[in-house]
Amino acid sequence: xxxxxxxxxxxxxxxxxxxxxxxxxxxxxxxxxxxxxxxxxxxxxxxxxxxxxxxxxxxxxxxxxxxxxxxxxxxxxxxxxxxxxxxxxxxxxxxxxxxxxxxxxxxxxxxxxxxxxxxxxxxxxxxxxxxxxxxxxxxxxxxxxxxxxxxxxxxxxxxxxxxxxxxxxxxxxxxxxxxxxxxxxxxxxxxxxxxxxxxxxxxxxxxxxxxxxxxxxxxxxxxxxxxxxxxxxxxxxxxxxxxxxxxxxxxxxxxxxxxxxxxxxxxxxxxxxxxxxxxxxxxxxxxxxxxxxxxxxxxxxxxxxxxxxxxxxxxxxxxxxxxxxxxxxx
Amino acid sequence: xxxxxxxxxxxxxxxxxxxxxxxxxxxxxxxxxxxxxxxxxxxxxxxxxxxxxxxxxxxxxxxxxxxxxxxxxxxxxxxxxxxxxxxxxxxxxxxxxxxxxxxxxxxxxxxxxxxxxxxxxxxxxxxxxxxxxxxxxxxxxxxxxxxxxxxxxxxxxxxxxxxxxxxxxxxxxxxxxxxxxxxxxxxxxxxxxxxxxxxxxxxxxxxxxxxxxxxxxxxxxxxxxxxxxxxxxxxxxxxxxxxxxxxxxxxxxxxxxxxxxxxxxxxxxxxxxxxxxxxxxxxxxxxxxxxxxxxxxxxxxxxxxxxxxxxxxxxxxxxxxxxxxxxxxxxxxxxxxxxxx
Lengths: 330, 341
Ligand SMILES: [Cu+2]
Ligand SMILES: [Cu+2]
Description:
The structure holds two protein chains of two kinds.
Chain A: E1 18-21, E2 25-31, E3 38-40, E4 50-53, E5 58-64, E6 69-74, H1 81-84, E7 88-94, H2 115-121, E8 152-160, H3 162-169, H4 176-181, E9 187-190, H5 195-199, E10 207-208, E11 214-220, E12 228-230, E13 235-237, E14 239-241, E15 247-249, E16 255-256, E17 266-271, E18 293-299, E19 317-322
Parallel strand pairs in A: 1-7, 8-11, 10-19
Antiparallel strand pairs in A: 2-5, 3-4, 6-7, 8-9, 11-17, 12-18, 13-16, 13-17, 14-15, 18-19
Chain B: H1 17-20, E1 26-27, E2 39-51, E3 57-64, E4 76-82, E5 87-92, E6 101-103, E7 120-121, E8 124-129, E9 135-140, H2 145-150, E10 154-160, E11 167-170, E12 173-176, E13 179-183, E14 185-188, E15 215-218, E16 221-222, E17 234-237, E18 241-247, E19 253-258, E20 262-267, E21 270-271, E22 283-285, E23 290-294, E24 298-304, E25 309-318, E26 332-340
Parallel strand pairs in B: 1-7, 2-5, 4-10, 13-18, 17-26
Antiparallel strand pairs in B: 2-3, 5-8, 6-9, 9-10, 11-12, 14-15, 15-16, 18-24, 19-23, 19-25, 20-21, 20-22, 20-24, 25-26
Bound molecules: copper (II) ion (CU) (2 copies).
One copper (II) ion binds near residues 229, 231, 296 and 298 of chain A.
């Protein structure tokens, strides 16, 4: 058994993504369709909490939308049990003032921007103000409010130990300490999918040409500390969160091929869609090898690459695709 | 030019559920877009029994260099090249299929060593790449990786700046170092080391989600010998500059504590700071402050040997869910940096 949030507009399996703008007032109405109490909260958004909702009851919370960035909405009841059993979704907040002093658009509001993160965005694209030769092509193209942006992906990680899903199905109470202490996940998911399914899911895989940078909003709803590793490009680790869940833009933006996702972590990273740096000059663009170049992103705590105790690589993995070189863009 | 042929690989054929996992394409194709190399090396599968504290022996799989006299090591012999060289690394998979993934390198898909996007090698293949960014990388097998990486199929891949070995880039500027130390902390679950090559690939539950490490090594040296082993301990002279590279190979959180200030100058093969990386800068981890790495992360650090003495280095291996020290508190490996006058 899995629990999930559904919206009136979108009754799909995955929780709907809320796309909102910093500073607006938002009212969320939550109806509990289950047979035990649940709640609602958005870590990092003051006032966005409903501690308990009785079965069949509808309650509301009205709050001011916090700073630009990536947020979880989740059920805080019996933490982390119901969150891990499926009661989580993502809220994407468009910043109130997204431009840097140099006029370049970022996912963060002016008062939260850092020199480090701004230097990344100001270096992207042929006409970038900082390093016009470094990342030829486009700057990052923001699509705030677009429900299916091309230059952004949301990656939600989770872990599943089915013995607890069975307890939930049987209506047995689950003790949160026991849940963590005895959890032995058998499945590891990315956007609710794993392995083959996640690697061919259009909502999940970033796709584009050289010079079409993409923002990846990575959130860990599960119990393990994951170590996602990307092939083909390094990413820029842009943001993290503090103890109260506020979005914090990094001062020192480190390029990595492997970053850390502890439980509850929400980190935005930028995938530059740069020419893969170690393809020989004399073989770029490749003459014989065809596009798209396909590269995996998978967790390097390789335990997470399994499903049901084996079946590598049917775990927390997806691909990304470089469709062609800059010169082939239409 | 080679006779590039993508038939029978994930590049030239459809990839269904079967080819993705249980039955990936296996082949020995020519390298597409083949160039004349500046450097060539070969790595070949080999296995041996490792003696562990308490007398237990477990099977380790590694890579050997068939062209070297002392080519059988664990971790596999380091591949060391200079930025800008065209490198050919040949894999010889003499026992079942394997691949070499050049972790942190950004080559083409065919040279990336991943079965479901390219192919697994059942004989020979030459991986072609031109490392452009100095720093610390590693090579490892990317077949049934959960098992093959745990079995030990990895080695370092070091990219020196154009100034050559003995220099590291700090914020874009070459800095000469006198002593180099490479530490690869790893944790071993002996139960997994009984499994066969293809364990679990086609539907069986072989327990690869249940990892209970009992033994702990640094650079292949079990933790009862890491204080003394020349592969691990560091001997420096007052005034030396030490370059330390750490690659976290454990399946969990690795805590590292070094008894001297360490300045991180490179992460995952990317120089921090300088004109080509205005978004970052080197940062210092004070002596005896703990920092954490998770699976496959690398830090390159500069340490000034500006004080005489023995300085402790401690690796603590934590469970990835509960963060308790592995093996009921035994998950620790220590060594030391000795600075002589
Ligand atoms: Cu990989
Ligand atoms: Cu790797």
